[in-house]
Amino acid sequence: MLEAITQHGFYDERHGGPYDRGTADSYYMREFNPHYYVGDTYKSPKIELAQMTAAEIVAYTAGYTNNEANGDHKEY
To answer: Which residues contact 36 (CB under 8 A, 6 or more apart)?
Structure first.
């Protein structure tokens, strides 16, 4: 669900949402794998790519690609 204009565009940045999960996957240098959580991350049902809408996939992709462009990655 698109709810707020953010610095990255018109995406809902709530924790567990598609944009947030894309950003987190990039930050932790995980592979591109569209998904999100209905509520809190790891504490609510996970929605996989096959169940996502086009808008949700776009939001995940935006989170992932924006973070990649910023080069913000966890240092191990």
So the answer is: 16, 17, 18, 20, 21, 46, 47, 52, 56, 60
- Of the listed ranges 6-10, 32-36, 68-72, the least confidently predicted one is 6-10
Please state the domain extents for the chain.
5-69
Here the tokens at position 56 are 């949700």
Q: What pLDDT score does 10 carry?
A: 79
**Hey, which residues does 46 pair with through a beta bridge?**
37
Mean pLDDT computed over 39-63: 96
Q: Round to whole Å and give the CA distance between 12 and 37.
A: 13
How many angstroms separate the CA atoms of 76 and 66, rounded?
Answer: 21
pTM of the predicted model as reported, rounded to 2 decimal places: 0.87
Q: What local confidence, expressed as pLDDT, does residue 4 receive?
A: 45
